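Please check this chain.
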Amino acid sequence: MDQGRTNEPLLIKFNELAEGAVERTVYALVANVIRFMDLFNVVTLWPDGEQARANLLRLLAEAGEFMDANREALANNGFHDSGIQTFLAWTTTKVEEKDGDKQSDHRVLDENAIVLTTRHGSNGRE
């Protein structure tokens, strides 16, 4: 990293994804990340692949619900933007309201796997 950008393929994909991200909707960003990382195919190798696939579909549905939500109602609840940061805060609030609606710990076959989680859900995973 001292000499500049790394040639890690996954990070290169994310750099490509980041181009024009400001103009994309939350749903498009979530769908693009899933597509760029080929997550639907990757999770088929996991022991709990069916649950992981269901979770990805749920994430897409949540992004769609956020995009369709009434902006005035969201603003009244403290969500004043329609960007990805607001979406993450909104999903965190939804989880907290459901008293921690979480999956059991998951196992993966790939040691280099990336776990997508909210900032709140990532506490203690350093």
